[in-house]
Amino acid sequence: MFTGIIETLGEVENIVKEGTNVHFTVNSSICAELKIDQSVAHNGVCLTVVALNENSHTVTAIEETLNKTSLGSLKIGSKVNLERCMQMNARLDGHIVQGHVDQTATCILVNELDGSWEYRFKYNASLGNVTVEKGSICVNGISLTVVNSQADEFSVFIIPYTFEHTNLHEVKVGYTVNLEFDIIGKYVARLMGNK
């Protein structure tokens, strides 16, 4: 479980393909605190640490993960939002996030406002996922509040701190991001007869 509060930005320093798997090596400020077999969210995708170096860690993404997330588009030098799993004795500052990406979305608007930014994302509503006005959404692992919710798109507003300390500052119109919809909303949708 995660909270959607990003701890740090990592940078992809190596990518190795092995069969249908891809190993990503990521440099970050939290590497010294990681352990082998630990779960870490990378742009909202829960991956297991399989190797550690002095300033970097390696995780493996299987074909299913690469097909359903935006991880396959990472390149050497890409910035990655990182969050370690939450501790049960800590505050839940964001919302309950599983690290299981439901689908991707495309950025269709970046609007720089006076002191904040609006991002609008479009997703495939036929998969049965829904957003709720003022509800929670996880975009690239970041816990955010939904505004202007529609059947297949929504907006979020970003404060300067989030803009500077996550990889949203690199997201432009046309970019693909990972979405994890609110778990409570998913259960309600399932009970109401949606997918």
Description:
The chain is mainly beta and 195 residues long. Helix content is 11%, strand content 41%. The chain is built from three helices and twelve strands, in the order βββββαββββββαβα. The strands form two sheets. It has a six-stranded antiparallel beta barrel. The longest helix has 9 residues, at 183-191. The two termini are 23 Å apart.
How large is the radius of gyration? 16 Å
Q: Which structural class do the helices and strands define?
A: mainly beta
Count of individual helical segments: 3
Reported for the largest beta sheet, the result is:
6 strands, antiparallel, barrel
Shape: globular
User: Would you report the number of β strands?
Assistant: 12
Model regions low in confidence, pLDDT < 50 over at least 5 residues: none
Q: On the 0-100 scale, what is the average pLDDT? A: 92
Q: State the distance separating the first and last CA atoms.
A: 23 Å
The strands making up the biggest β-sheet line up spatially as: 1-2-5-4-3-6
- Helical content (DSSP H or I, runs of 4+): 10-25%
- Report strand %: 35-45%
> H/E series, N to C?
EEEEEHEEEEEEHEH
What is this entry, summarized?
The chain is mostly beta strands. It contains 3 helices and 12 strands, in the order E-E-E-E-E-H-E-E-E-E-E-E-H-E-H.
